């Protein structure tokens, strides 16, 4: 019994595999054949059926449910009906095979929409900066900006930076060659409330292939910061100064995607700083407070180059006007 | 085992039958993907000579600012590639650092101290009366911008690299730089009276980058940052602290300049792409 059952089982597997092939082929083909007839209404007398198969003779007049069409051709002359319909169809739009027209440069709109909208979006930008105009000490900064765009060209925001000083070659040269110790202040941190305005917008092609949109924006703000005196003689203490720090600048923004841009720019932080007095001794300006009270002041322009990557929220936008 | 194999084959066949055939449809590409980014574009540089009178100034010089004027001559081989030369005559001005140091120095030479006198310090500083470069330039980006939604101008970004040359000059009088002995052969441990050794011609490397902003079809505003890198000792003093001024005190330095000029293109008429 067992071998018989196995053979039968094998035959059934092969049968079902073949059935799958046939069914698949059948499924790939468009359906043909007439639609099923609707079910007769429940209850009441069934209405007489109307045979709509082509080639059949029209139902004889006088039968229940017929509508007399007046000038219509006489019964039995269905070929005349078909000829009339053919003539009508000849004057109508011929529906042929769907053709896809190739896209050409003529289909491109002359003026396209801006690919990036900023209105009512928030920009979060971590940034890195470096001093550009100090021969003695270069400050590297890391920080961030948070801006909210009231319109597509006007924004308000805040920024914060932490500075790390790095002494440059002239700092050592002046000491070694001229036998003079420079008076140096280093910066610790800064923060500001900023306003941004976008007056320039444009686009450029890279290697005549890809288009990139960009813009220029100006920045003006007011903030605060802190500087620290680097004492020439380490046996005397230094002191820190809280600075009122307005700033102005210009930057460029390159749009990479709907939610990310790259910013590069120049910013000038202007402040009045206090420097270590030159005459410090155990009997004069020995303490930090005393030195600070007799400190020499100067107006400083700390010009910095900044680069940052901006993330925009919400991450997408929609135009609300017609194209 | 046989039963499992047959079941597997049957199942695979069934899956293949019901899988939509368009899973293997050919990927369609935008027919414009190989076309240039801009049509009917004005070729503002291609095949044209560029003559640009310009002004240059150092950025962040340590001891002497160099400011001067000159000209750039460039031929654009195509839309992106060009070759050119630039030459600038300049004068030197003391920086704020020098103005702060000099008043604190002693007025006369005192061999007992290692501190230089005012004349020993200032007469060793060199100047750069002539400098320039020969370069190849690449213009990979061109575009348009709108200022205040009113003024529409074309622009391009370019990057340059090549050879730099400079003529350096320092004038230390014989009564200041009066050490006639070879400082390496007979060191006197007094670098303040050694010759500064920072004069003469220099060859080096040049890199630069800038932007053309086209005011019309043949005139453009040209803004550039240029780096002339060559061996130099701007202070003419002892750099390596061996108490003597020798050729080893010179090092490879970057001389950064900002340049602004007006580029005039010839011929003045411009062609367009198809």
List the helices and strands and how they pair.
The complex is a heterodimer of chains A (323) and B (274).
Chain A lengths: L1 H27 L49 H14 L30 E10 L5 E13 L4 E14 L1 H9 L6 E23 L3 E21 L9 E5 L2 E11 L2 E16 L12 H6 L2 E18 L10
Antiparallel strand pairs in A: 1-2, 1-9, 2-3, 3-4, 4-5, 5-6, 5-7, 7-8, 8-9
Chain B lengths: L1 H17 L23 E2 L5 E10 L5 E13 L4 E14 L1 H6 L16 H5 L4 E21 L3 E19 L30 E15 L4 E14 L18 E16 L4 E2 L2
Structure description:
The complex is a heterodimer of chains A (323) and B (274). Chain A is an alpha+beta fold and 323 residues long. In chain A, 17% of the residues lie in helices and 41% in strands. Chain A contains 4 helices and 9 strands. Chain A is elongated and about 130 Å long. The model of chain A is unreliable at 1-9 and 22-73 (pLDDT under 50). Chain B has helices at 2-18, 96-101, 118-122; strands at residues 42-43, 49-58, 64-76, 81-94, 127-147, 151-169, 200-214, 219-232, 251-266, 271-272. Chain B is mainly beta and 274 residues long. Helix content of chain B is 10%, strand content 46%. Chain B contains 3 helices and 10 strands; from the N terminus they run αββββααββββββ. The radius of gyration of chain B is 31 Å and the shape is flat. Chain B starts with a helix and ends with a strand. The chains are: A alpha+beta (323), B mainly beta (274). At the A-B interface, helix 1, helix 3, strand 4 and strand 5 of A face helix 1, strand 5 and strand 6 of B. Strand 4 (184-206) of chain A pairs antiparallel with strand 5 (127-147) of chain B, so a sheet runs across the interface.
